[in-house]
Design brief:
single chain, 112 residues, 5 helices, mainly alpha
């Protein structure tokens, strides 16, 4: 560990953990605001890595994906519908929550 790092760690004040929800919510807001204030710099770094011939291909792809995710959002994930798949689980949850009083746990006239 470098001497500079040790000085930084020792010189930072230790803050007690927030105990109230409003305090932790305010802290999260402050952290988000601080992180967002570094957006331009972070994007410049990512673009630099993506364009760097010295960076590994994995680092370049990772940087490119991070840039695309921030600019366009993450790609939609497909929902698989197989036996006892995700859609079946969604339908079961719907039958239990939306139609709890029916005998089969489903709506009349619906496939169970």
């Amino acid at each position: 560990m470098s001497e500079e790092m040790e000085i930084t760690l020792v010189s930072e004040p230790v803050r007690p953990l927030a105990r109230r929800k409003t305090s932790s919510a305010r802290t999260l807001t402050e952290i988000r605001s601080l992180a967002r204030s570094h957006t331009r710099t972070a994007l410049r770094v990512l673009v630099g890595i993506m364009r760097s011939d010295d960076a590994t291909p994995a680092a370049r792809v990772s940087a490119a994906n991070a840039i695309l995710d921030r600019g366009w959002g993450k790609a939609a994930q497909p929902i698989e519908n197989g036996e006892d798949g995700v859609l079946e689980l969604i339908h079961r949850v719907e039958r239990i929550i939306v139609y709890p009083g029916s005998p089969s746990g489903g709506a009349a006239g619906r496939d169970a």
